[in-house]
TrEMBL record:
Protein name: Methyltransferase FkbM domain-containing protein
Gene Ontology terms: biological process: methylation
InterPro entries: Ankyrin_rpt-contain_sf
Keyword Cell inner membrane: no
Gene Ontology molecular function terms on file: methyltransferase activity
Superkingdom of origin: Eukaryota
KW Transferase (keyword) present: yes
Start-end of Basic and acidic residues biased regions: 44-61
Amino acid sequence: MESICGSQKFVFEQVGGRCRLVCEDDFRSVVETEEHRSLRKARREAAEKERRSSKRDEQRKKVAEFLRLKKFGSDVNAPKTSCCGFFSTYPLQEAARDKHWKMVLLLMQCGADAKKKDSFGKTVLDLVDSPPVRDHILQLHLRRVTEQEPRTKPEKLIR
């Protein structure tokens, strides 16, 4: 099939149910090439990575705001002590006491330790009433523990 547009002559060929466009000097395929697929995939992956990065930054801002409002330091594992120094608590336990489950999960994702105990000897797992939330906290804690490299002491050589 031939078509004339202005001064250029275009020829269309049908190959395997798809059309190909043939110009006088060039041959352009309407069918997507492997290069185009890989470029599109790379762009999609970069956009997804950027989206995840911005979501992570937003979550860190929420955690920082929570720590500031509850008068904790900037560390998610740093305790807050009372004015006399008798009582201490951690951000994770404070969020669990407030039943702020999203913040509990955000703190866990930011590295808060679920096994830290307050001055009454309670961990965050002791404060959580909901079994699904408790299971999710345990999964996050176990995932972080297994991802860390085991700390082994160097063996002494016996001769």
